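[scheduler] slot 2 assigned
[scheduler] job type: sequence-to-structure, two independent chains
[scheduler] chain ordering preserved from manifest
[runner] begin chain α
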Amino acid sequence: MNLPNKITIGRVVMVGILIILLGLPYQALNIPIPILFGDINLIYLIGVIIFLIASFSDFLDGYIARKYNLVTNFGKFMDPVADKVLIDAALIFLMIRPLWAAPTQITVAPIIVIIFIARDLIVDAMRLVASSRKIVVAANIFGKLKTVAQMMAVTFVFLNDFPFSYLNLPAFLTITDFLLYIAAALSITSGVIYIYQNRKVFHD
């Protein structure tokens, strides 16, 4: 197994660590969780560090694979899967506000999470059908922008809109919410473009 694939596997492992970190019942275990500057929960601060390292590894494995001609079928399959599992797992946990989080902690609206996951399922299903017909579904710029926007939005949800929270904007107009809406719009746009550009996949 080459270096890029090892980095990809490492990202999957970090997803597992992130899920355990966010999923532990701290309240039931009577473990106090301090709230830090900007109403950032300590668990979320650790979570965002893991998330950022995992997100950077997405760029790193692809860069190394292309530069040193280490692209493999395993990498082509696992890299996008690891990205989606990372983002979707984080989003699912960030839909709720745990009892141990700050009362002002930002959450992700369920409809946005549904848009992200539904789009990924549709595109992945299309890729599967295309693969069975020897058709390559190429990535488009909107798909890459969508991933970057998602990672930025998730990062600021973890950080509870820090440092933008100091701008004292109305609660319904946070920068983090704006980033989430942009990511959702890019998700829908890239999904529609994928379907339109590869509509021949559905022709019998």
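[runner] end chain α
[runner] begin chain β
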Amino acid sequence: MSLRTLFFDAAGTLIQPAEPVGQTYSQHALHYGIVAEPEAIMQAFRMAWKETAPPLHPEGQSAEDDDRGWWRALVGDVFGRVQGRPLAESVLDGLFDKLYLHYAQPQAWSVFADVVPALEDLARDHRLLVLSNFDRRLHSILAGHGLLRFFAQVIISSEVGAAKPNARMFQAALRAAGCPPQEALHIGDDLKCDLGGAQNCGIQAFHVKRPDQGLDVLMQKVRSGAYSGLH
């Protein structure tokens, strides 16, 4: 079978925060009288992210709040770790609202340099979809960077009701693309969510690991036929 469809992860694959997360959190926290070093916040964020289960809703149900509550709990956990005590609810409400709005803005994100050339080339003869553990903010972010034009559809976890590596995400993408697993390739930077999740569903996967393995390498591999005729 030939390769017809490419699924792209978003954060870490197509886009990344324009400035370090710890720096952004630290700057916003100052407005609420919270002094925290960016590196301490970054360490707390990594730990909270690792230890917090991804959103999961009953099958067939999307997140009523677009997973906003999940993000609020994560931000609260981060600052609780840094401060050694929970933030007051009123402070957390205000700080979270500011951070949530910040990351809804296209300018809060930057596009990796290898993305547009690769998408322009691959979109010529492949169907491209985004498959991301994100919420509805992703649509305006991608639109703001002129990336939506490349994709037939954007599949996000808050609408599916499950997050990668859950098979429901990949099944939703296959249904949207109208293709069998053997004709798809998933591209992402996370070994568990992207590679493991895809391969468990019978979908080939490409591991984005810049600078050695970016989308320029993906393009070369696709053009060489590396992902065709393997099934």
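[runner] end chain β
[qc] chain β: The chain has a mean pLDDT of 96.
[scheduler] slot 2 released
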